[in-house]
Amino acid sequence: MNELRTIRAKSGTNQEGTSAHNRRVIIEAIRLNGPLSRADLARATRLTKQTVSNLIENLEADGLVASEDVVRRGRGQPSTPYRLVAEGAFALGVQIDRELTRVVAVDFLGREAARAVANLPPGDPVEGSRVILRLVEKVRADLVARIPVSAHRLTGLGIAMPGPFGLEPAGDDPWMMGKWQAFPLLETLAAGTGLDVSLQNDATACATAERMNGAADGLDHVVCLYLGYGIGAGLILGGELYTGSNRNAGEIGMVLFSRGGAVLPLEHRASLASLFQRLGLDTATTDAYETVERLTREGDPRILDWLEGAATDLRQAVHMVETIFDPQTVLLTGSAPQPLAERLFAAVFPLLPSNAERPGRTIARFQLGTMDPWAVALGAAADPIRRAFDPVFSAILKEAT
Amino acid sequence: MNELRTIRAKSGTNQEGTSAHNRRVIIEAIRLNGPLSRADLARATRLTKQTVSNLIENLEADGLVASEDVVRRGRGQPSTPYRLVAEGAFALGVQIDRELTRVVAVDFLGREAARAVANLPPGDPVEGSRVILRLVEKVRADLVARIPVSAHRLTGLGIAMPGPFGLEPAGDDPWMMGKWQAFPLLETLAAGTGLDVSLQNDATACATAERMNGAADGLDHVVCLYLGYGIGAGLILGGELYTGSNRNAGEIGMVLFSRGGAVLPLEHRASLASLFQRLGLDTATTDAYETVERLTREGDPRILDWLEGAATDLRQAVHMVETIFDPQTVLLTGSAPQPLAERLFAAVFPLLPSNAERPGRTIARFQLGTMDPWAVALGAAADPIRRAFDPVFSAILKEAT
DNA sequence: CTTATTAAGTCAAATGTCTTGACTTAACTG
DNA sequence: CAGTTAAGTCAAGACATTTGACTTAATAAG
């Protein structure tokens, strides 16, 4: 008779949530600090020795941790450190870009275990998703061939592609991603692989990669600028990845910057697309990446000119994210050729004065992260791992029915 | 012999953490939905009926919830809704501004229970903190006189003042807040009141106020622009207040905007300070607030001119925070006279196209929040309440030794 | 009017996880 | 070689949630 009311609240938790969290905390502690003994873990997590012992036993049985050689450290019984077992879990990651797709498998430590790359038919997600599925199966077969135990240890499939997500297709869609946005990608890949599928934008995936093995590891507040065809920011806020209410947080490429009287999106000058355009490169027909690398080494004046404009905007972007997020550090990542990235990074200095310039700073305000073109795929693959094993709030809550 | 190593990890949890979280979840569910029966609560929190019964009994004994009249809703045993008891908890809040301080007491629901205001000697935190302490004692006495039970139910004292915090004192310090920043304020007020003291900037406090009773209630992703002497943003991200690594997140007044060739901080045009300057008002000697209100009603051309500039910048600021945070909504709050605020709010429209313009939106992109000058003090006071009773991640973890 | 159905809420035993304190083991120190 | 320190285990206990049967109290249907 009464209409069913929607009741809003976070969900509660129970003993299961408690122990799940504690398992995750132990894994995190070992990941951050390297091998730790049970006593070390008890101190790090504030759990009792006994609880840690139980959990370690549990994790060892699951093949996620293993003991190392006994260590003597002065008086008292020697300790037995435990390390994470790389083969304890795996995940797959897919990067979808305009013209190509990269698929990787990573292990529990986020290290690459297999990879494959293929071209994508631009603007054709139907055929494109078939290509991806074939590639995923190839990588999966590769992985299983190499490490036989892995089959049931696959925690999921992470996808990374340029955002923003969920918008009305725009009239101008220079990157042909509009059709991909409209395509039921997650459903298709979930059905085709039988895996749990997650989606994030490329900047967020790159931040995940930096968090897994890079400069962001162990930090709780990091803004990771991602310079690709466009420019975006992957956000680690309060120790967790932040993606906003619709997975579109950090799309700073669309923030408006004024230059010489005109108001333009940041990515108009600070993006590889703007560089390719300046150079008259068609990414579909030329190997733009190598061309840019060569021209950079040659000191091409168009590159220098672009660098100046991009660095100016980037300097302001760093100031903006420092001011807005109050992060511990800002990273420059992306898929630019290494020489270009290094020049750009250097050209951003000196940084603008900002709130980040505080007495007693120990971490650099602005650092150069990875420019590995595979970082996005690796980050995409690391996402299911982190979902399954990181101590996050949502892992404690009871699941939806 | 070995140096004590610092081991990094989140801390673990135990049954205590579990039940503490569940208590908080129940409180949140009632706060968001209004009175709920035990069965409703079980559905909302995914806890079992029995668990909810235990917790409700517990909360009732603590005087935090109380039963209402039995409700018949069709077949089955009638249900007994529980509501939050306003007198169940109290907290004090202090707003410190350049020339004055406001102190309020709020109840469990965030409603004002007592208030007081006094002038502050500009740039003199030693004498100023004495003024504050006297005012706090006055409000506390007021509160206790009105509601005798309250003494031990005081959860803490929240302070709000303009940021940024922890920086080297700048050469130009037009607002005389530099000396306050250097002063050991938390320690002084903690010692003087015997209460737990917390600190946030004024924009964050205003966001807390909006979250407690205003437009942000029940939303998980909100950016709350605060237009005061300067301009800042209070951030609610992922259901929790976000303050960055050094409590300086959201200080968007310092973000650089280009206008007519010059690069200037946002607050150069979009702040009350800029308006006062334009009008030649000295806030120390005149009642700037009333003057502005009168001039606004009169349609003073200087006001109109300022409005145009401020609205232009604000429009861009809204676009910026929408793009960067992907929030559910953006609120305009502050301490401007209501007529001015309404005009400014209206002048921001039409909003710039952004990622927030998605199909199927139900919440307005940009809303006018409170301009109550007491909102900051109320938010400061609500902070200890929310710390003590909101279901946040940190509440589950074991405490530091 | 009587019976069936539905839903709220309680009871008591069971389960799962962490905690406690005593104990064992194994090293270094003097 | 005895004393001290620290890692790690053992077993009983404490605590919070879960389970399933049961009670209570209303409406709906015949």
Automatic annotation (TrEMBL), chains A, B:
<dbReference type="GO" id="GO:0003700">
    <property type="term" value="F:DNA-binding transcription factor activity"/>
</dbReference>
<dbReference type="InterPro" id="IPR043129">
    <property type="entry name" value="ATPase_NBD"/>
</dbReference>
<dbReference type="GO" id="GO:0016301">
    <property type="term" value="F:kinase activity"/>
</dbReference>
<dbReference type="InterPro" id="IPR000600">
    <property type="entry name" value="ROK"/>
</dbReference>
<protein>
    <submittedName>
        <fullName>Putative NBD/HSP70 family sugar kinase</fullName>
    </submittedName>
</protein>
<dbReference type="InterPro" id="IPR000835">
    <property type="entry name" value="HTH_MarR-typ"/>
</dbReference>
<dbReference type="InterPro" id="IPR036390">
    <property type="entry name" value="WH_DNA-bd_sf"/>
</dbReference>
<keyword id="KW-0808">Transferase</keyword>
<feature type="region of interest" description="Disordered">
    <location>
        <begin position="1"/>
        <end position="20"/>
    </location>
</feature>
<dbReference type="Pfam" id="PF00480">
    <property type="entry name" value="ROK"/>
</dbReference>
<feature type="domain" description="HTH marR-type">
    <location>
        <begin position="26"/>
        <end position="75"/>
    </location>
</feature>
<keyword id="KW-0418">Kinase</keyword>
<feature type="compositionally biased region" description="Polar residues">
    <location>
        <begin position="11"/>
        <end position="20"/>
    </location>
</feature>
<dbReference type="Pfam" id="PF12802">
    <property type="entry name" value="MarR_2"/>
</dbReference>
<dbReference type="InterPro" id="IPR036388">
    <property type="entry name" value="WH-like_DNA-bd_sf"/>
</dbReference>
